Every structure is written in structure tokens, then in C-alpha cells.
Amino acid sequence: MQIESARGSGSNLSKSGAGLEGRRLVLIVMGVVGAGKTTVGALLARRLGWEFTDADDLHPPTNVEKIRRGMGLSDADRAPWLAALRHAIEQWNRVGANVVLACSALKHAYRERLRTGSVQFVYLKASSELILTRLGGRHGHFASATILASQFSDLEEPAGAITVEVDKTPEAIVSEIMEKISTRESTGR
Fold it and tell me: Rounded to two decimals, what is the model's pTM?
């Protein structure tokens, strides 16, 4: 399992306004391909002073090759990947690590599989038009626009997640996420 450190200079946790001081949590930043999970997740982790990892790094090579060829993954394809992710989340919870995980988590059943210990989902919501525009300018990632239709077909929008529209800059998205986390933490919802 690869975990990239996204710690900022000095602890900005108390300055973050997110209200997460003293909490142990895995934040799963989810959405379709091109929604900005990795960009937003890494920036969020850096702002919180937490660890960051990308669930794509835990895909078996056969899944990566299918995605590269523009083929959607079946539930059976995703099963070992979800098992590896759950194991990682259990480990982070066991050691009390604060982690931001970028992960598609498209279906309710997938999210239930990942919901172990202290987990909160952050849904990066976007229209297919916006995502197509973003993917047109994207280079160096194994997933492309050809997989987008299957992603939107599989997507079951989450209930109870922190939901943020991604029609703004990554910095603005992260600020909105942190504000919503702070509101939830202060209200207990």
C-alpha cells in the first residue's frame, strides 16, 4: 500500500477551521473519473496535514489495463480492489491515522464495503459535460473519456456524504469541503 505524505509545513490542523482536532478519520473523496478526486484529495490532505493515498494505486494490473482500454469494470473486477481498500482503511483506523483517500466509490454497495471504523465520504459532484471538458485536457492518467459513460451509469449518488459541486477551482472546492466538515463537526451531524 502506498501512502504519500501530504503534510504541510507546521501543523495547520487547528488553523484549518475544519473542527477535526483530536479526531481520527478517513475521508474518502469520491466521484466519477475526472471529478478531481486526486487533485482535491491531495490538496485537502495537505491543508489538514494528513496523509493522502489514491485508490487507483491499489487496482490490480488487470483492472488498470481494462480501464486503459476504455472498458468499464464489473463488480467482480472491483472485488479484490475493494477488499484491499477495506484492509487499508482498517489498518489506518487501527493505528489512528488521519487519511484522505481518493476513490471512485460509485455504488452504495462499494461504499458500504469501505465503511469500517471512522469514515466520512466527500462526494465531488459534476455534470457529464463538465467532466468531458476536463478529460479532454487530461494527460498521463490511465482512465480516459471512453470510460465516463459506464462511470455515470454505475454512479449511485450517496446519501449522507458531504457533497460539493466541482465547477470551481480545487482550492475553492477544498475550502468548501472544510467549511462543511466544520459545520458537521460543530452540529454533530
Answer: 0.83
